[in-house]
Amino acid sequence: MHQQINLFQPVFRKQQKVFSAVTLSQIIGAVAVLLLLLLGHARWTLANMDETANDLQQQYDHLQQQIGVLEKALRTPDTDALDTEIEQLQAHIDERNALLTRFDDLAIKNQSGFHTLFHALAEQHINGLWLEGVSADGDTHIEIRGSTLNARLVPRYLQRLGNQPGLSGAPFETVQLKRADTQHPQIGFVLRNFHEGEAWD
């Protein structure tokens, strides 16, 4: 007695795993290392800014001393040359004050913006959803790029980010989902807290 078996039935097809547990662990580890490197770079940048600010403060103090010496010399009748030199010194002081203010703003912005952002992203990990890139200019504009095998995980991830105190004030207004290849189940997504085409600060 002969019996025919159709080997093309779905039950006989070998199911291909998209990602193994080892691959997922490596991806998660790579993302964690990337976040740590970005945090370390931000701290290193802040340290350099503090050093530059100290140098500018010393120059500012030196210029103030020079002005004091010139003011004592003004006991004699004023001359055009002396007035010109005082104006030039005051212009240098104004420039350095502007630089000090700018450095203070950058230090505060980086410390409160990038740290809060990366900490929130590291806390809100969802299995089956991977981050591939983050762009931010302080705490004003944020763009998150990633991929997933399940499109339903993206709204869940958005909800989690919205519950983060550091990100609740910057809701993500633009969400894009796109499957690059119809033969693969992977879906790319982009989250922005600003409209596409809007100029960055």
Task: Please explain how this structure is put together.
Strands 1-2-4-3 form a four-stranded antiparallel β-sheet. The mean pLDDT is 76. It is elongated. Helices cover 53% and strands 13% of the residues. It has two domains: 20-123; 127-201, 2-Layer Sandwich (Gyrase A, domain 2), CATH 3.30.1360. The chain is α+β, with helices and mostly antiparallel strands. The chain is built from three helices and four strands. α1 (21-73) runs antiparallel to α2. The relative contact order is 0.09. The chain has helices at 21-73, 80-123, 153-162, and strands at 129-136, 142-148, 174-178, 187-192.
Task: Please list the strands of the largest sheet in the order they lie side by side.
Answer: 1-2-4-3
Tell me the Rg in angstroms. Answer: 29 Å
Strand share of the residues? Answer: 5-15%
Mean pLDDT: 76
User: How far apart are the first and last residues' alpha carbons, in Å?
Assistant: 79 Å
Estimate the helix proportion, in percent.
40-55%
Number of domains: 2
The number of strands is 4
User: How can the largest sheet be summarized?
Assistant: 4 strands, antiparallel
Number of helices: 3
Instruction: Label the structural class.
Output: alpha+beta
Succession of helices and strands: HHEEHEE
The outline comes out as: elongated
Q: List low-pLDDT spans.
A: none
Give a quick rundown of the structure.
This protein is an alpha+beta fold and 201 residues long. It is built from 3 helices and 4 strands; from the N terminus they run H-H-E-E-H-E-E. Strand 1 (129-136) and strand 2 (142-148) form a beta hairpin.
